[in-house]
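Journal club side-thread
Mid-discussion, someone asked how the predicted structure for our own chain would compare to the paper's figures. Pasting it here so we can look after the session.
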Amino acid sequence: MKAAVVAASAALALAPAAGWAQSATTAGTGASQPGAATGGTAGSAAAGNTSASTVGLGATSGGATAIGAGGSAAAPDGKADTRAKISGNGEKAQAKAQAMDQGTFSRSHTHTKVKKDAVSSRTKAMAHTPGSKPVMSTSTAPTP
């Protein structure tokens, strides 16, 4: 019996790895009333040993606006890159995050805009493992 367990363990250790799991999820929400609006979207993607997430939020009320964006990426054995910027006039924000490990990658990208009485945001996330179809998700949060 002991030899059978050792043989089975060796067979499992030498077997090719199963396909890496991959996922991409996004979500968004928003609300508005006369003279004010809030909204935002966020997304996350993961494939193999990589992950990437971004978020964008905006609000406007009585002529004042607030906007923000950010992201994170991780790839312990590969490359990870995160960028976020807000336009000079504070009406547009963008966040990008990407992680790569050989052919496996995860990325997320968020755009958020604040106008007089409206906030809109869009996030796209994608994950890919070589040999399988990429997984994608998109969410938008417009407020009239």
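Post-session note: The two ends are 69 Å apart (CA to CA).
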